[in-house]
Amino acid sequence: MTWLLLVLGLVLLVFGADLLVKGAARLAGNFGVPALVIGLTVVAFGTSAPELAVSVKAAYSGQAELAIANVVGSNIFNVLFILGLSAVISPLLISHQLIRQDVPLMVGVSVVAAVMAFDGNINRIEALILVVGLVSYTAFLFYQGRKKGMDTSDEEVEAMLKVKVPVWQNVLLVVGGLILLVLGARWLVQSAIEIATMLGVNEAVIGLTIVAAGTSLPEVVTSVVATMRGERDIAVGNVVGSNVFNILCVLGLSGLVSPIPLLAGEQLVQLDIPVMLGVALLCVPLFFTGAILDRIEGALFLMLYVAYVWYLVATALAQTYIGTLQNGIIFGLLPLVLVYTLYSLWHSLRRR
């Protein structure tokens, strides 16, 4: 029943986020809000709605470490698994804006989160700084879009606004989506805690793996479908934007509603947050080389994610081979990634 509750919670989160985005976008359209604003606010927030619902619920219920673990795990999953899988399906195009602006911003907010959590917690003042950053970031995106003369945001928003639906139906969608999100978050957090207790592992481990992957399902679907349709730049932009929102919005709002500071345990501070930061930094040279994430790099991302999750689970269950696995990652996989990255950079610079 606990595992069934976990799956049902994930399903409700995905459907709730979809209903909320559609209802809120059309409702905004009913009141004459430009498509650009809808795309930069409603749709952007909507992709992070599952993470937001789970982390806020966990923080408000006193599981303050699960709130941070969900964000950190989601950001790692987004880059290594989603981008890795998408690149294996088809090489991904990296736009110049991503290279010059969005990826450095993702690295920057990751550094800020790492510094805030270094002392073992994120307090209300730090959470407020993140929320202020969120408002500033959204305002900057809106200003940038207006400056470029963009009257609409993207085809997804346009398609939603073309469907003429009465206001009351849109309100019903928003309310229904919120109810599903709240119920799904409650079931997911409750089942995650029970599973962690049953397996004898830290709640953070469940948050970093099962919960993080589950709440990132909308990003998986969006990026993989975009890649298969040939919209290979959307897949990357979706992941980078989601990671920025996860830190600024999800961590910020969770920290504000939590009765106690958000906790970052020893494992999060020493392993998981540095991995999140390292993964964000890895995007910089790989995206720079030719502005394409090819299949080999996608396979490397997937290998890194498998190794990371394997190490987490093996450590949590105190497996006897943990030392061998650790040596294989440190002296095998990581040097391989470093050598390939340096070779790609050298080859790209030489070609230019």
Index terms:
14 helices, two-stranded antiparallel ribbon, 352 residues, A middle domain of Talin 1
What does this structure look like?
With 352 residues, the chain is mainly α. It has a single domain (2-351), classed as A middle domain of Talin 1 (Up-down Bundle). Helices cover 83% and strands 2% of the residues. The chain is built from 14 helices and four strands. A two-stranded antiparallel sheet has the order 1-4. Helix 2 packs antiparallel against helix 6. The longest helix is centred in the middle third of the chain and has 33 residues, at 167-199. The protein starts with a helix and ends with a helix. 47% of the residues are buried. The mean pLDDT is 84.
